[in-house]
Amino acid sequence: MVAMAMLAFVVFTLMVLTFAVFIAIFAFMIAMFAVITLLVMMIFMMIVVVGVVLRHCGNAIRAEGTSNTGNHQKTCELHKMYLLFTTQ
Questions:
Q1: Which whole-number Å values give the CA distances from 77 to 17, 32, 50, 84, 88, in the listed order?
Q2: Given 3-state DSSP classes, what are the helix, strand and coil percentages for the chain, each rounded to the nearest 5?
Q3: Where does the sequence pass through the membrane (predicted)?
Q4: In this structure, are residues 79 and 58 in contact, taking their beta carbons and an 8 Å threshold?
Q5: Spans of all domains in the chain
Q6: Taken in order 45, 47, 51, 53, is the CA torsion positive or negative?
Q7: CB contact at 8 A, 61 and 79
């Protein structure tokens, strides 16, 4: 009788531990999915932002308009430096 109770306790303990491990693995999978999704979204947004800024500044540099004042001028200078750096 005592042996059966001990066996039942051991089996129950193993079941609970196995279930806990499954829960931990599932939680880790969800966390990694969230992290990877956030990284992909951040990379995509950086590509979009950099692409829009570079296209805008490239058009402004080619146009050489009179609106190149203030922060816009600094942005275009940064773009010129970027172009020099990437074309060498």
A1: 61, 40, 15, 11, 17
A2: 90, 0, 10
A3: 7-27, 33-54
A4: yes
A5: 2-87
A6: positive
A7: yes
